[in-house]
Design a protein that fits this description.
It is found in: Cytoplasm. By secondary structure, the protein is α+β, with helices and mostly antiparallel strands. The protein has 19 helices and 28 strands.
């Protein structure tokens, strides 16, 4: 359904005809600049378009200026754009030397006797072009006001790695140069904030081919961030009444047969052979839920035990194909801020509201305001995808809507977004540069209690099924830290900064004072280090700023005499000499309260 939403959005985009036309102009230009290149296809996409070519040579970004020059000539030629219909036989004659177009013609002619084509210019013109296309387009190439080629990559025909590799050029177009310039500026900002670049520059994580794709290695700086995030999650959950559990990293296949995950997720699960276990099959844990259900079931429960909140920072593994991997935003192994709340049906709405309040607490603390709530519902056209009967689903949907309304949350509904066992509420956060990520989730589950026999003894002495709520307000360490790197452009809040303070002695005679200052700061629980390198002071300050370290303490003769340090912030602001006791007090307060300010 997500793909259909994108298609609908593109159809309603007023720039779509312009970009669609610019795509055809690019096709024509590449065929002119690179004789032998054959246009294949190229749709408009969000914020631009791309074109695929069958070409055995190389096309590099260094070639973009000459391609763009020909594109501009086509635009300046003010070619009329006209729609035509042709029979499949007529179309095959035109594209007799292009096997990709012939395949498309054969495919589309099954649904219609006549195929739609567009021409640019009149036959015989220097830049005349004809292509199979459904439109829509602008009326004349002169309406394409501003465009830019962005990147080049390889792409398999129809996305199948068994097919031929094509050349794909990504580009964009706008109706004014001002809008194009603003978009290109945004792209540059996105590059600067790319979590993979920041992860490398700030020494947070690395991915090694020797270990495997999608398996990040947390470097010392990253490990500190991960530990700080988990410490916050655990402290908060303790305050909110959660009990901590820990479960194994693998299990017998049987567990996920009981949960019903096997038919839906087996291809995403990693299998393990256990020596001496015969043909008994094991999985590496892809999710924590079934393990927590068995902990709940480990002894009889009564209404006095409810709601029971079981929490775990559980590491799980799920298969993602290489094309889907994206640094730590989409890895194959990740650690979830997971918990399951077991409650009675009467408690379910209030528990849901409480969980939403927890979500808001985390987001408010991090200054995250741009997010939306999406309630994923089943697709009635593919009921076979879901477990449980209609009555159960209707009840779960009603409870979810009631809970969201009681929590005072505006939400959207997404057909097809449900989990296989119940409706799913996702919180989707938009970063400072406009990228949206599904970070957090909460689900009311009426199905798993029946699968696992999860009951409690109520006040009337009768056994009743519990309601399970799945929640992960901080998502996974990996995705959340990746998002925060992008959101803060690497300038992490003081509490999440791997190194909070760097001490920079001006000369060698100040090393002893710097060492004593570092010792005091560490004793106070702050993450401090001294830069004793022989590099000039300004170079060391610049290096600390490049590493996004919040505070630089400069120590020279005056600072030694007055037991102060000259404080510089990573923003470049110079606060001048400050008493060391005041520095400690100020930074500790910001650190311990997880304040977002610097001073």
């Amino acid at each position: 359904m997500a793909k259909e939403k994108v298609i609908d959005k593109l159809k309603n985009d007023p720039l779509m005809p312009l970009r669609h036309s610019a795509e055809h102009v690019l096709h024509t230009a590449v065929e002119k600049v690179f004789p032998g290149a054959k246009k294949v296809m190229g749709p408009p996409i969000e914020n631009g378009f791309y074109c695929d070519f069958d070409y055995d040579g190389k096309i590099n970004e260094e070639d973009f200026p000459k391609i763009e020059q020909v594109m501009q000539e086509i635009i300046d030629a003010e070619l009329p754009v006209k729609k035509h219909t042709l029979s499949a036989d007529e179309a095959k004659k035109i594209f007799k030397d292009n096997p990709f177009k012939l395949e498309l013609i054969e495919e589309h002619s099954k649904d219609s006797e006549k195929l739609t084509f567009y021409t640019f210019g009149e036959e015989g013109d220097k830049y005349y072009d004809i292509d199979l296309c459904a439109g829509p387009h602008v009326d004349n190439t002169r309406e394409i006001k501003a465009f830019k080629l962005l990147s080049v990559a390889g792409a398999y025909w129809r996305g199948n790695e068994k097919n031929k590799m094509l050349v794909r050029i990504y580009a964009t177009a706008f109706d004014t140069k001002e809008k194009l310039d603003a978009y290109l500026e945004l792209l540059e900002e996105q590059k600067r904030r790319d979590h993979r670049k920041l992860g490398k520059d700030l020494e947070i994580f690395t991915i090694s081919e020797e270990v495997g794709p999608g398996l990040p290695l947390w470097l010392p700086n990253g490990a500190i961030m991960k530990e700080e995030l988990e410490k916050w999650g655990k402290q908060t959950e303790d305050d909110w009444g959660y009990k901590r559990v820990s479960t194994p990293f693998m299990t017998k296949r049987t567990l996920f047969e009981i949960s019903g995950h096997v038919p839906y997720f087996e291809e995403e699960m990693y299998k393990v052979e256990i020596p001496g276990e015969g043909e008994e099959e094991y999985f590496i844990k892809p999710m924590n839920c079934p393990f927590h259900h068995l902990i709940y079931k480990s002894k009889p429960r009564s209404y006095r035990d409810l709601p029971l909140r079981l929490a775990e920072y559980g590491t799980v593994a799920r298969y993602e194909n290489r094309g889907s991997l994206n640094g730590i935003l989409r890895p194959r192994v990740f650690t979830q801020n997971d918990a399951h709340v077991y409650c009675s049906e009467e408690q379910a709405i209030d528990v849901f509201v409480e969980i939403m309040d927890l979500h808001r607490y985390y987001y408010d603390k991090l200054g995250l305001k741009d997010y939306r709530v999406v309630l994923g519902l089943p697709d009635p056209e593919i009921r076979g995808k879901y477990h449980g009967d209609k009555e159960m689903w209707e009840k779960a949907e009603k409870m979810s809507r009631t809970a969201l309304e009681k929590a005072g949350v505006d939400y959207e509904e997404e057909i097809g977004g449900a989990a296989h066992y119940g409706p799913k509420m996702d919180l989707k956060i938009r970063s400072a540069i406009g990228n949206e990520y599904a970070i957090s989730t909460n689900q009311i589950d009426l199905y798993m209690p029946g699968r696992f026999g999860l009951t409690f003894t109520d006040k009337d002495g009768k056994e009743k099924p519990v309601v399970v709520q799945h929640r992960a307000p901080l998502g996974s360490d990996e995705r959340f830290i990746g998002f925060l790197l992008e959101q803060f452009a690497g300038n992490m809040p003081v509490w999440l900064s791997p190194v909070q303070i760097v001490i920079i002695p001006i000369g060698e005679k100040h090393h002893e004072y710097a060492a004593s200052l570092e010792k005091v700061l560490k004793e106070e629980g702050l993450r401090a280090q001294t830069d004793n390198r022989s590099e000039p002071m300004n170079a060391r300050i610049r290096d600390a700023q490049m590493m996004k370290i919040p505070y630089m303490l400069i120590a020279g003769d005056k600072e030694v005499e007055s037991e102060t340090a000259s404080v510089r912030l990573r923003t470049g602001e110079n606060l001048g000499p400050v008493k060391t006791s005041e520095i400690i007090s100020k930074v500790k307060e910001i650190y311990l309260t997880r304040d977002l300010s610097l001073w």
